[in-house]
Design goal:
38 strands; binds uridine-diphosphate-N-acetylglucosamine; alpha/beta; 461 residues; Spore Coat Polysaccharide Biosynthesis Protein SpsA, Chain A; UDP N-Acetylglucosamine Acyltransferase, domain 1; binds calcium ion; 9-stranded parallel β-sheet; 8 helices
Length: 461
């Protein structure tokens, strides 16, 4: 196996996006563009320490750097003078990898998948090329670089510099290349800014191939989608819609029930078991997993969470949590990060849980805030229970033992422990531990003053 290394160009400002954020941080299916590219690239088996990402100057580059895998190198391009100039900033990395084949990818084209990268590499090696560019035939070549096939190989003409005839060409540069490091090191500095945009174009490298010592070739992707990049918000929205449709169609083919398919968004790293049902307004993000028979939606957002089999999530939001099988959640519940909910639990309407564990068969039915609690099995939490878990400085945990009954409007002033089978009367301010099987009442005793309300208010009818 020949050695391989890779460079991602990610220093561009994305002015055309109208964002302060670097363009490569813009998201497709809620995942930054550059993360799509890194995942595809690592998916080919390339280790992170063989990757160098070209980033802009500080502080602009910082949001990009937080997204990079451990061990990955970076090079800084202080002034953005074009894609060729960006690659020049990696000279040290190229020297370190001078016997390798170098993959160069642009940080704004998220659909170049691992299979395509590998197939292009196969073609590159088989042809003995110094450079192989990934291309695609598209309906509207727009501002993409045009691929010109010549007798001695292939060149690329940027749209800004193309003749009217060249603009008719619909095979375009997808912005992914395999290079020999040796060829790059010998020729990169030959690039000039002698073009309409006054930039160092990486695409001009193909012109340094003579067809003899150094050959330039093209590998055409099977799908036009592979080439799509995003320079503007409109283009980004188009990429999102394509990615969304492909993902939903894949899930439908796998046997997931999505009756109104145009109204569901499922991220790239989400898994949904066949037989699950996704209703309109469902958005599944991050590394979420949905079990078979689960019913999600309508209008539910689930992020980085695991949902068990046959669980129903109705008009609710769940983040960074695990929910077991046969649960009913919502409508209008929120599980914030760190919740672990066992099987057959009911979490009803207007419930907020945070960093809380819930044992099996517990019912938490209405209007409560339950934060930093360990709730046992078979516990009943009444309406309007509040965990008072924050004293202004620190957070405290409390435990509700198995089969405990917590009456309505209880304040659980943490830290306290409610023993197994204990009963907390409605309206209690729970400040002390409750032994197993005890009844706790912590509220002011009611007094009735006979006649004192009489005549106080006028009766309308
Ligand atoms: C580029 C190609 C074009 C191709 C298209 C595919 C060139 C000259 N043109 O055009 O042939 O069809 O991509 O999407 O290469 N970047 C830097 N530093 C810079 C400039 C750019 O790091 O100084 C990075 C950007 O962050 C981006 C990538 O390089 O990720 C591509 O740059 P962009 O300006 O988007 O190139 P295009 O005009 O789209
Ligand atoms: Ca681009």
């Amino acid at each position: 196996m020949r050695e391989r290394a890779a460079v991602i160009l990610a220093a561009g400002e994305g002015r055309r996006m109208g964002a302060d954020l670097p363009k490569v941080c813009c998201e497709v299916l809620f995942k930054p563009l550059i993360c799509h590219i890194i995942d595809h690239l690592l998916g080919t088996g390339l280790p992170a320490d063989r990757l160098c990402v070209v980033v802009g100057p500080k502080p602009y580059c910082e949001p990009v750097e937080t997204l990079l895998p451990e061990g990955c190198h970076t090079a800084t391009q202080a002034e953005r003078m074009g894609t060729g100039h960006a690659l020049m900033q990696c000279r040290d990395f190229l020297v370190q990898n001078r016997s390798a084949d170098i993959l160069v990818m642009y940080g704004d084209a998220p659909f170049v998948d691992a299979d395509t990268i590998s197939a292009a590499y196969g073609a590159h090696v088989a042809a003995g090329n110094a450079v192989t560019v990934l291309t695609a035939k598209v309906e509207n070549p727009d501002r993409y670089g045009r691929i010109v096939h010549t007798e001695s190989g292939v060149t690329i003409v940027e749209a800004a510099d193309a003749t009217a005839d060249q603009l008719e060409i619909n095979e375009i540069n997808a912005g992914t290349y395999w290079f020999s490091a040796e060829f790059l090191l010998e020729n990169l500095e030959r690039l000039t800014t002698d073009n309409k945009l006054g930039q160092y174009y990486l695409t001009d490298m193909l012109g340094f191939c003579d067809g003899q010592q150094y050959k330039a070739g093209a590998y055409r992707a099977w799908s036009a989608h592979v080439a799509l990049g995003a320079n503007t918000r409109r283009e980004l929205a188009k990429l999102n819609e394509i990615a969304r449709t492909l993902r939903v169609e894949y899930l439908l083919n796998m046997g997931v029930d999505i009756p109104f398919a145009s109204q569901v968004v499922v991220g790239q790293d989400v898994t949904v078991a066949p037989g699950a049902r996704l209703l309109p307004g469902t958005i599944l993000k991050g590394h979420t997993q949905i079990g078979a028979g689960a019913i999600i939606g309508p209008n539910s957002v689930i992020t980085d969470s695991v949902i068990g089999q046959n669980t129903e999530i109705n008009q609710s939001q769940i983040t960074g949590s695990v929910v077991g099988a046969d649960c009913h959640i919502g409508p209008f519940a929120q599980l914030r990060p760190g919740c672990k909910v066992a099987d057959s639990v009911k979490i009803g309407n207007f419930m907020e849980l945070k960093n809380t564990t819930v044992g099996p068969n517990s019912a938490l039915s209405h209007l409560s805030y339950l934060g930093d609690l360990d709730i046992g099995r078979g516990v009943n939490v009444g309406c309007g229970v509040v965990s008072v878990n924050y004293d202004g400085k620190n957070k405290h945990r409390s435990t509700l033992g198995d089969y405990a009954f917590i009456g309505c409007n209880t304040n659980i002033i943490s830290p306290v422990t409610v023993g197994e089978g204990a009963y907390v009367a409605a309206g209690t301010n729970l400040t002390e531990d409750v032994p197993a099987d005890a009844l706790a009442i912590g509220r002011a005793r009611q007094q009735n003053k006979p006649g004192r309300a009489k005549g106080r208010f006028k009766r309308k009818t």
